[in-house]
Amino acid sequence: MRTLGWEWAIEEACQNYVAREAVQLTEAGAEMLLEAADSLYDMLVESIPDPIPDEFLQRLAIPANLWEAVRHSWNDERHWHLYGRFDLALTPEGPKLLEFNADTATSLPETAVVQWASLVAAGQGNEDSQANGLFECLEDQFRHWRTLNIDRQATLLLVYLPGSAEDEANCAVLAEAARAAGFADLHICPVDDMKVSVAGEDRGIWAETAPQQWQKFDFLFKLVPWEILAEEEPELTADLTQLQLTRDVVIANPAYSLLFQSKGLLAHLWDVFPHHPLLLEASLAPLPGHHVRKPLFGREGQNVAEIEPDGRMTAEVPGEFGQQPQLYQRWAELPADAQGRLYQAGVFWAGEACAIGFRREAGVITNLSEFVPHVLV
User: Is Cytoplasm one of the keywords UniProt gives this record (predicted)?
Assistant: First the structure.
């Protein structure tokens, strides 16, 4: 880790966060998870109506000031979806989709590097010991994104929410993949340090790459959720939309990733593919029986509540998303170990399903739940 310059991966906090054990996964089990993610992505794309009506965007709770950007990016293939992470429940009936983190999925460092390093450190690391092609697929995705937009300069700015070392580390992984794909000119900074102009010669996005030295960037990766931008920075959202329409900047993940990010799409998927073996029953109205309730744009497990078969609600995870529209999804029992910890599979998609990682927790899986590496047996 130190050779790579990744000091953050060996800090005490990270050691406590990454489990000291690995999930044993058969090759057939890994292939089942990867195939499920590929099938689910195809289903997501197939389910989006063309053209996209206002009623559909309203149902998914897409902010109205993003509708133009969503439609434009969906209809122009040069706006490329780089990656996302499927959260899956391994049930006795097979994998079931819990949700898709399509816009700003994290745990890239843990999945791509730390879990592999943990196997190497344990003397069990070889090319066949883990389902983990995440970095290579990210590199391919960046290369394809660049090829689709060959008329733009290969300059890439990566921004994240201020004060988040975790998000900065995720951007560092993406920057390494982009550099390997031919983006020679990159810069990482908090989103507050990015300057956006829609007028005159300064039109575009800029960052101070050195003291008093400002540079314009043609490509932008933002580890900032679209819906948060739309709500908290409406002027910036309008400017970014305008710059996209005139091709002064190309943004990933594209605005249309918000269609996949909205948990309202899970209800739509159930309508389009009723009783599909990879899906859990989901609705925008309360369900009978055992189910969960979660906000359409909730994050990190916040405001998720379990509803018992008799209608009683167990303790809700505290959070700031309780006022959002809610999704109701059939309960799925996660596999548990002898200590009662539940295991949730995360499968990264980057052009194809390419890497697996696990999270475990005695209760609802959140961003603070342990990350568990895996080893193929």
Answer: no
Edge-first strand listing for the sheet containing 353-361 = 94-101, 84-91, 342-349, 353-361, 370-372
Residues 6 or more apart in contact with residue 364 via CB below 8 angstroms: 301, 304, 306, 317
Q: Locate 80 and state its tokens.
A: 């490329």
- Residue identified by tokens 């009936």 is 93
Q: Is 276 exposed, middle or buried (0-12, 13-18, 19+ CB in 10 A)?
A: middle
What's the pLDDT at 120?
87
In this predicted structure, what is the pLDDT of residue 53? 98
For the entire predicted model, the pTM comes to: 0.94
Q: How far apart are the first and last CA of the chain?
A: 25
- Residue 122 is predicted with a pLDDT of 87
Neighbour order of strands in the sheet with 291-295: 282-283, 326-330, 291-295, 305-307
Segments making up each domain of the chain, as ranges: 7-261+337-376, 282-330
Confidence (pLDDT) at 299: 79
How many angstroms from the chain centroid is the CA of residue 195? 25
Instruction: Give CA separation, 114 vs 4, 25, 72, 135, 270, in Å.
Output: 11, 18, 37, 12, 35
Q: With the C-alpha atoms ordered 104, 110, 111, 113, is the resulting torsion angle positive or negative?
A: positive
Q: How far is CA 302 from the centre of its chain?
A: 16
> Can you list the residues of the chain whose pLDDT is less than 50?
none
Query: Which pLDDT does position 118 carry in this prediction?
Result: 86
Residue 21: count other Cβ atoms within 10 Å of its Cβ: 12
Listed in sequence order, the residues at least 6 apart from 101 whose beta carbon sits closer than 8 Å to its beta carbon are 84, 85, 86, 87, 261
